[in-house]
Amino acid sequence: MAMAITRTPLFDVHCHLQDNRIVDTAPSLIKAATKAGVKWMAVNGTSEADWEKVRQMSEHNSCIIPCFGLHPWWASQRSKDWLSKLRCMLQSVPCSTVGEIGLCQSIRGREVEESIQVDVLRQQLELARELERPAAIHCVRAFRSLQGLLEEMGSFPAGIILHSYSGSPEFVKVFAKHGAYFSFSGFNTHVKPQKARRIWQQVPRDRLLLETDCPDALPQVDDPTALFWVPGDPAATAAVPSSNSDCCHGEEMHSKSASNGRGGIGKGALNQPANLRAILSHVASLLEVTEEVLADAVFTNASTLFSFPGSKLVDCS
C-alpha cells in the first residue's frame, strides 16, 4: 500500500537537483515531488561550477529556492575571486540563501586542510550574516571545530541549518543558542532507532526540519512502495525493475523486492525530493507523533526560516 498523503505540504530544505547524476531528469523529479505534496525545494550549490545551474533551475521553477555556497570538499579548488563571485550571485538573486558550506573530516573531507575549510566557512558565514540570509552547514566529524567557530563569531539571526545532522544529543543545545535548526535526511534512517530517538527528542520542535539531500541519502524503509525511484538509475532498476520507466512508487514490484528486507532495497540507488514523505514517516514514528502533526511543525519551521526579505515565500504570501 502506498504511503498516505498528509494534508500539510512539505518543504525539502536541502537537496541537489543540479547534480549531474539527476539534472537531466530534474523536471520529472520536480513534478513527482509536487504531486507528492512537496511545495518547496531548497537546491544547494556546492561550487562555483554549479551556481549558474542552480540559478537557472530557480528561474524556471517557482518551487525551487536557490542556494549558493562553496562546499568544504571543493574549498581548495576555489578561484582567487570566489568570494566576490558568491557575493554577486547572492545579491543578484535576492531569493537565494547560502549553502552548502561547512566543515568535513570524513575520509574525503580530510583531503582539504582543516584550516582552509575553517577560513572558507568563516567568510561565507560572515557574508550570510551581512546579507541576512540563512546558511546551510555541512558538518561531519567536526562538531568541536564548528562549535569553536560559532562561539567566536556569535549568533546568526537569519538562522543556520545543520543539514543532515549527525552530531550527538549534547551538541543540540550548544548549536541551538547560535540560531541553529536541525535537519534530518535519509542518512538518519540508517541510525539505530534508539540513538536517533535520543537525538531527535533533544531538538526543540520549533527547530526541526526535514530534507532529502538527494540524489544521495535514499531512506531505508521496510516497504519499497513508499519510495520513489529515479528513472534510468541502474541501481533502482536492479531493485525495482519497472523503475526505469517513471519516477513513481515501485508498488507493482512489491512482491519481487520486499524479500530483500530493510536496507537491502535499492542499495546505492539515487534519491529524489518526493521521498521526503518517507523521511517524515520515519521521524514521526520515532517521536511518537502523527505524520500530520510533524508535517505541520516542520513546514512552519522551514517557512519561518526561509521567509527573509526577497524570498519567494514572501513574494507569494
Q: Keyphrases for this structure?
A:
12 helices, 8-stranded parallel beta sheet, 317 residues, TatD related DNase, alpha/beta, TatD-like
Summarize the helices and strands and which ones pair or pack:
Layout: E1 10-15, H1 26-35, E2 38-44, H2 51-60, E3 64-68, H3 82-92, E4 97-104, H4 114-131, E5 135-140, H5 143-153, E6 160-162, H6 170-176, E7 180-184, H7 193-202, E8 208-210, H8 234-239, H9 254-257, H10 276-287, H11 291-305, H12 312-315
Parallel strand pairs: 1-2, 2-3, 3-4, 4-5, 5-6, 6-7, 7-8
Order of helices and strands: EHEHEHEHEHEHEHEHHHHH
| Share of helical residues | 25-40%
Low-confidence stretches: 250-263
Q: Overall mean pLDDT score?
A: 90
Radius of gyration: 19 Å
Give the amount of beta strand, in percent. 5-15%
Please list the strands of the largest sheet in the order they lie side by side.
1-2-3-4-5-6-7-8
Distance between the termini: 35 Å
Counted by DSSP, the helix tally is 12
Biggest sheet statistics:
8 strands, parallel
Strand count: 8
Shape descriptor reads globular
Give the helix/strand class.
alpha/beta
Describe it for me?
- The protein is α/β, with parallel strands linked by helices and 317 residues long.
- It contains twelve helices and eight strands.
- The chain has helices at 26-35, 51-60, 82-92, 114-131, 143-153, 170-176, 193-202, 234-239, 254-257, 276-287, 291-305, 312-315, and strands at 10-15, 38-44, 64-68, 97-104, 135-140, 160-162, 180-184, 208-210.
- Helix 3 runs parallel beside helix 4 and helix 10 (276-287) packs across helix 11.
- The radius of gyration is 19 Å and the shape is globular.
- 48% of the residues are buried.
- It holds the Pfam family TatD_DNase.
- It comes from Sphagnum jensenii.
- This is TatD related DNase.
